[in-house]
Amino acid sequence: MTLKAVPDVVFHTRVRNDALEGPNPFEWKDMTTSDLFGGKRVVLFAVPGAFTPACSESHLPGYEANFDAFKALGVTHVYCLSVNDAFVLRQWALSRNIERVIMLPDGNGDFSRMMGMLVKRTAQGMGYRSWRYSMFAVDGMIEKLFIEPGLQDNPGGVPVDRSDAETMLGYLRSSH
């Protein structure tokens, strides 16, 4: 397999700053692809949207529940990417008790577009969103991609058959 580099983009994230007082102790921090993937063994899974049914009921919880298994296989970081802003992703993580998966906002869809995974969901009133997929990347190079079938604009739905945590764990167990 020919390895492909993870797209070079800037993610606009929010990070906790304990020096800030009040109900919102967070500040903006731009993170580059190099910051997030360089020198790391990363599992990233992308979802069509925060708070959507399949994303909330199986996709995100599956990766959180299997976090220790990923770590045992040498994965350093697990990212959940969505074309949502940092505020939405934080509230989604809080609502689902997500503590170990890192929520990665692709608010403008730049990463998703450069991955070839940005699709229209305008028929559902959702604008542009990421297609559902997962990847394993080592030091910024994509080693394996699992893409849900039927990549297209305005799908009726996108299953969680290939990009789920169990499929990624199976791959990592068999190849590493």
CATH architecture: 3-Layer(aba) Sandwich
Number of helices: 6
- What string gives the helices and strands in order? EEEHEHHEHEHEEEEH
Shape: globular
Read across the widest sheet, the strand sequence of neighbours is 1-10-9-4-5-6
- Tell me what portion of residues adopts beta-strand conformation: 25-35%
In the CATH hierarchy, the third-tier topology is known as: Glutaredoxin
Family: Belongs to the peroxiredoxin family. Prx5 subfamily.
Enzyme class: oxidoreductase
Protein name: Glutathione-dependent peroxiredoxin
InterPro entries: PRX5-like, Redoxin, Thioredoxin-like_sf, Thioredoxin_domain
What does this structure look like?
There is one protein chain. The chain is built from six helices and ten strands. With 176 residues, it is of the alpha+beta class. The protein has one domain: Glutaredoxin, CATH 3.40.30.10. Strand 7 (118-120) and strand 8 form a beta hairpin.
Topology of helices and strands:
Blueprint: E1 4-5, E2 10-16, E3 26-32, H1 33-37, E4 41-47, H2 53-65, H3 67-72, E5 77-82, H4 86-95, E6 102-105, H5 110-114, E7 118-120, E8 128-130, E9 133-138, E10 141-147, H6 165-175
Parallel strand pairs: 4-5, 5-6
Antiparallel strand pairs: 1-10, 2-3, 4-9, 7-8, 9-10
